[in-house]
């Protein structure tokens, strides 16, 4: 395989645990790709697309990525989470997933759902996370409908979930509309982190985020449209605050 | 259906969220049954079996339980968690699950795995939680092997998980042995709560439990036998402390 198969990689780290969503708590490695077609107001990984880390981007083939994973965690992982940015911009992610599967390693991936890739059908834990109004982004529902329809047609909905991050009541309304639109897709609500500075005190931050989580829980419990929802905080932020690379 | 179908019920409450295990975060109602064949040293629901709440036990039929659930949360749930004590002592739980299913409501249940019931095959989210050494209980592996074998034969492993609560390193060793023994069953590690007094300050308790969770995460990340594990705290305790009935 040549450099034509390469991916723009910003971070490779682990093992750590997945702090969010459908496989929360799972021991996993992280591969973070560069580039995003969105610019969410509260993006917690803006360095992947705002140019601030562009000198850190490395073009790596799937073999090189796997070799690096095995070097930093020899025999110590069976699950890799591909995050971004938006990894769905990258056709070659499909080759990385193939390579992981060939070693018996599972792959999880999160994307906002702005673009389809055929390799979505091969992701073991696919999280589609459309962005609510507070992000200042607009959802393209034609694309999102198409993604869900293709996953359903490919009999892959059981490996997928929808996740909406909620900062305020308008976001919660948006979340409800997403859940209503795709009632047969596993649905997760997640607390938005409104204090993303790396210098925030971790204990104070945890207590602040737990009270925000409690508020989201209250909204969910009061809302009959949310009976099938799962509502979760970001566990890694509760434990480690806003540090990168843990 | 007569009182012959009745179950000894100690608490019915909700909606709230499931704070633990395979459906963590799920909006759910709780039905807590009385009675346990164990007496774990750190049991957080000893009132179900130590006689202290025996005057609160009500003998309720599945119809009566469903009526009460609908009264306290009309149209506001689609999932019920049956907990104890050990609900696997009660043959009639199968009738309650049938009744819930007939209304389109899912059922989750947790048991320590000391006893089989045929209705295990009908539980949507079945958590088997064998007790580690710190509980001072002994696992009957003949029974546990049989339970897992029957779930496998019934093609129900995808609706089941194993969960081990860990207080110390001996418990972690026990957890590893359980995961090794049943490698094809979804496996969860959970932080043990060593401060179960109802008067503990919730914020201090959360910070204490998060540091214990971090320690369990560290052990899991360092251990190659745990690559497929999921490691989780008790979310409800982080939010609400040790209060009952939330
Ligand atoms: S989609 Fe994700 S990576 Fe892209 S800007 Fe939004 S939060 Fe950031
Ligand atoms: S098995 Fe559960 S309910 Fe029974 S004593 Fe142990 S912790 Fe308590």
From TrEMBL, chains A, B:
Q: Does the keyword Lipid metabolism apply?
A: no
Pathway(s) of this molecule? Purine metabolism; 7-cyano-7-deazaguanine biosynthesis
- Binding positions (substrate): 17-19, 32, 83
List residues binding Mg(2+): 45
Radical SAM core domain location, by residue? 23-242
- Chain positions recorded as S-adenosyl-L-methionine binding sites: 42-44, 85, 129-131
UniProt keywords, alphabetically? 4Fe-4S, Iron, Iron-sulfur, Lyase, Magnesium, Metal-binding, Queuosine biosynthesis, S-adenosyl-L-methionine
Q: What class of enzyme is it?
A: lyase
Q: Which family does it belong to?
A: Belongs to the radical SAM superfamily. 7-carboxy-7-deazaguanine synthase family.
Subunit composition and interactions: Homodimer.
Q: Which NCBIfam families does this chain map to?
A: Bsubt_queE
Q: What is the name of this protein?
A: 7-carboxy-7-deazaguanine synthase
- Organism of origin: Alkalicoccus luteus
Q: Which gene encodes it?
A: queE
């Amino acid at each position: 395989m040549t450099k034509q198969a390469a991916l723009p990689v910003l971070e490779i780290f682990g093992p750590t645990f997945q702090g969010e969503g459908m496989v929360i708590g799972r021991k996993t490695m992280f591969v973070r790709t560069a580039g995003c077609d969105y610019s969410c107001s509260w993006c917690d990984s803006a360095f992947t697309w705002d140019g601030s880390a562009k000198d850190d981007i490395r073009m790596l083939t799937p073999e090189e990525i796997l070799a690096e994973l095995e070097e930093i965690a020899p025999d110590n992982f069976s699950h890799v989470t591909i995050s971004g940015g938006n990894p769905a911009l990258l056709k070659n992610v499909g080759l990385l997933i193939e390579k992981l599967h060939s070693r018996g390693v599972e792959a999880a991936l999160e994307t906002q759902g702005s673009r389809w890739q055929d390799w979505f059908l091969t992701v073991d834990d696919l999280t589609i996370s459309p962005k609510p109004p507070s992000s200042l982004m607009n959802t393209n529902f034609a694309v999102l409908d198409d993604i869900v329809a293709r996953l359903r047609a490919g009999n892959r909905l059981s490996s997928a979930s929808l996740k909406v991050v909620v900062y305020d009541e308008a976001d919660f309304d948006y979340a409800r509309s997403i859940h209503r639109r795709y009632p047969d897709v596993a649905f997760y609500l997640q607390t938005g982190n409104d204090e993303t500075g790396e210098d925030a005190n971790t204990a104070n931050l945890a207590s602040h985020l737990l009270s925000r989580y409690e508020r989201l829980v209250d909204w969910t419990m009061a809302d009959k449209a949310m009976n099938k929802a799962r509502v979760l905080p970001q566990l890694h932020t509760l434990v480690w605050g806003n540090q990168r690379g843990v």
